[in-house]
Amino acid sequence: MARSELRPIVRLRSAATGYTYATRKNRRNTPDRLVLRKYDPVLRGHTEFREQR
Question: Where are the annotated coiled coils located (predicted)?
């Protein structure tokens, strides 16, 4: 069964160091770019991660 295009895989890049996470998002609920606060192991703290395309 093929993966839906409604939930694509997106990469979240740290605003401070460039560290990345991969996750999925629902395009119907969040059509804009995703911004989350997540743990950055390079900084050893939480920072803002933004969706990159």
Answer: none
Neighbouring-strand partners of residue 41: none
Note whether 46 and 40 are within 8 A (CB).
yes
Task: For domain 9-52, give the CATH superfamily.
Answer: Ribosomal protein L33 (2.20.28.120)
Whole-number Cα distances in Å, 24 to 21, 34, 44, 45: 10, 10, 24, 23
Measured between alpha carbons, how far is 53 from 17 in angstroms, rounded to an integer? 17
pTM of the model: 0.84
Beta bridge partners, 11, equal 22, 52
